[in-house]
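Schema walkthrough. Field components (list of strings):
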Amino acid sequence: MDRRLELEAITKRYGRDKNSITALQDISFTLFAGEFLAIQGPSGSGKSTLLNICGLIDNPSDGDYYLNGVSVAQLGVSERCTYRRRDIGFIFQRHQLIPAMTVYENIAYPLLLNGVTPKQIRHDVNQLLDTMGLEHRRKHLPKQLSGGERQRVGIARALIKRPQLVIADEPSASLDHQHAHAGLQLMRKLNQAYGASFLVASHDPFVIDHCDRKIELLDGRLETPA
Ligand SMILES: Nc1ncnc2c1ncn2[C@@H]1O[C@H](COP(=O)(O)OP(=O)(O)OP(=O)(O)O)[C@@H](O)[C@H]1O
Ligand SMILES: [Mg+2]
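Field assembly_structure (string):
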């Protein structure tokens, strides 16, 4: 099976000298193409830090990271940007929607950035709004939505461009069971239909049970080596 991500002895320190915090220490694992992997661990164990590194939002202090076999350290700024825009979908702990854009516009935005035709955008966004039960909220602004609705918009926005890697930080945090299920089903559908790989940080037993495999972080170290 193809290796989507490979982390070799990744360490992340925040700050310098005696005030520095080691958020990740000696983390190695592989995420294969089409795999749906859960990252479990208590608050402060380094889950978001790890996801930020995997998603090219942050750099490790030490170690090697390969994305589709390419050493990330060798990528230039614009190549990293292209990867993030085209190939990686993010679902954040705090949804991070664009406040001045409607639900429809927020979901359409990644397609617009990738040069998709207006007709295709309308088709894809309307279909996804329908699947996520958000069609009646299409013209609303994020501030007019409930927490769960915002989270669903965040999931839709990450999945709309059918990225090969989806990084989700507590994707079900503010969802009730029914909507958590719908969000997860959608993620699974993309996973099966297009072989997208998923890296999902979660405390939610429901989410973890539906992943192929899990790894556990404790104080920045991997508990169960993958
Ligand atoms: N920008 C930063 N500067 C300094 N320390 C940070 C920074 N971001 C995170 N940390 C520290 O790194 C450690 C890991 O944080 P991280 O956010 O990755 O944990 P987490 O597992 O995602 O926690 P949670 O479940 O609460 O989201 C914590 O001790 C945190 O205080
Ligand atoms: Mg976190």
